[in-house]
Amino acid sequence: MNPALQGLVTIIIGVGGCIAYFYFSNQFLDKVLLPAKSKNAGRNINRANLIRPWLFLFPAIFALGLYLAYPVVATLWYSLTDRNQGGAFVGFANYQRMMAEPKFWEALRNNMLWLIIVPAASTAFGLLAAQLTDRIKWGAIAKSLIFMPMAISFVGASVIFKLIYDTRPVDQNQIGALNALWLQFDGGIGSFLILRLLPGALMISAAALALFLVYTNMQAIREKGAGAGSALRAVLIAVMAFVIYSTLGLAYGAFTNVHPYGEPQTWLTIPGWNSFLLMVVLIWIQTGFAMVILSAALRGIPEETIEAAIVDGANPFQVFFKIKMPQISGTIVVVWTTITLVVLKVFDIVFAMTNGQWETQVLANYMFDKLFRASDWGVGSASAMVIMLLVSPILVWNVYNARKEMR
Amino acid sequence: MAELKLTDVAKTYGGTVDVLKNINLDIKKGELIVFVGPSGCGKSTLLRMIAGLEKITGGELQIDGQVVNDVPPAQRGIAMVFQSYALYPHMTVRENMSFALKLAKKSKAEIEEAVNRAAKILQLDDYLDRLPKALSGGQRQRVAIGRSIVRDPKVYLFDEPLSNLDAALRVATRIEIAQLKESMPDSTMIYVTHDQVEAMTLATRIVVLANKGIAQVGTPLQLYERPENEFVAQFIGSPAMNLLAGEITGTGAVTTIKLHGGGTVKSAAPTRDSDMGLQVNVGIRPEDMIETTGEDYAFEGKVNITEALGEVTLLYFDKVGDNSAVIGKLPGIHADLRGRSVRMAASPDKVQVFLNGQSLYYR
Known about the structure:
With about 400 residues, chain A is an all-alpha fold. Chain A is about 75% helix and about 0% strand.
């Protein structure tokens, strides 16, 4: 049969089946099981109405149970058994084997990096885009352009970026945008400005910003005294101290690293950098999502509170950070955690671009590797459980915050 | 604590749409000026122009002798209370009130003192650490006022501050604002409302805005007793002033007008001999109408409907000629007048005469 025809038949059977199920099950309930007739009519109607919600819930519960709840339990069981011994129970042996693999720790470390950088960058860019496009005439066009990557599948986006990162021998034209750009640098004054001074200055200003955060938080601790808030602030100060240390190190590197000018680079094989190049793909996609949600939230802020702040003497930055941001903090958290969930499950991008080579492995791809390539259901399921363990608390928090926002 | 001077102030949107033009107004120190007018007359726009939230597209605004057209809102020495209170929802009452002072980099002791003083005046002491969402409407309104007080501004601006409150709370808060004004006799306040009662009770002077400009400026009683034009005459007072067309038949210190409906009426508005025979509109407030049985009546008509309100009775007369329906307001209960023909008169100093819409008292 023609595939299009097949699709059509599937749709007709699926939708028709659903309608038929709801119609006939309700008919059965009302006409056969508990007819609204004779002397028990009132009691029967009440009972039928107690049962009816379950008629409507049943398909969803059944499908979720079959395709979600059962696989979770089964995966948990698989992670505790060994296929080679005919599915015998081996306790935590699979987990131990997994922990012993450096590739697992690489995946875990990379996942952590993804987890910090992608949601932060997407939310920040999204917020920036939302705020800036709200004020300009062609903002609607800019918004549609920024949102468009959302319509591209992860694999499609990966193919696009693979072309951007593409490498050709030095005597051929570079079709990759990044290498074409790279070959413009020759070690002259322009290269110094862009490749040394700009990143160096950026890193130093980032360090300065972190230092400022440390300072304001120390002030706050001194003002408010000991407490849960102060403990959180202390943690933040520690993180910021680490950020200052690493940004200053990067700044030093920016000024001292030796660059191989004139040689096309195979970007995706440079350990350390290539993970970030993969993250760019997801940031590019998720920024649109963050922007749309945050833009709606920004518009929901009562205009009069902003005007009141202006009358109170707030400059545009203070209006944004002290009036607007706190009022949409709930939405920011929801956007952040939603993107975090996407990131934890990231698989397609890594699979399509590097397949986890050159130190870019992530947990989902590691699981796929073990489960379907190495056919090792034990370790594969064990890594799946690790992913679930990481996702669950964020999911719970996300749902909690989303419900709070709805109220 | 300041004087305001508006000279030929105008507002135009997009260079073509006039909203306000030729606004000239002197506001003296310590006055409470109320802007009233029908909706869409630009009263809120004018207030926002004084606040600096809307650009002044023509003319000049001075605060204390300094032209502030291009001075940002925070440096104009004004504070504004918004219709929706505009409290910062994520800040406690204390933080809401101290926000402006923090931005102005005032010392902690200063902020503390200003906030506590304002909280005491507004009886908010017990609520300082609550978030706005935990407050009632009236309390929120007080916080919004408190946010103004702490800044000790030269001019207070109120943009329909009571319209979000229910009727009982509105009266209570109105009285609170009046007391607040009393306790700060030197502060200048500008208050926008569409509620006549608020305007009449609060104002030192009322500015009636209509047709993109000022219809009249005056004390509440001036506006009530001697409106400058038909618009103000009908806008102030409820039910609105009756307007009856007529012809001047006698001139002098007291003018006699023969009404097209039949009767004659005398007005204390002076006229010249040359005014004889002019077509004018006579304005009489419903409450100034007196029932009469003599021949010296201004208006005679059949009472169509009576509304007995207890303290007064409203009489709705049948239309006579092309005048709009006349309304009378008699003290006491007169439900028995319904369906009867009644003659009404008025004392000369309560009778307004409008020539081409302008009152002859102001000629």
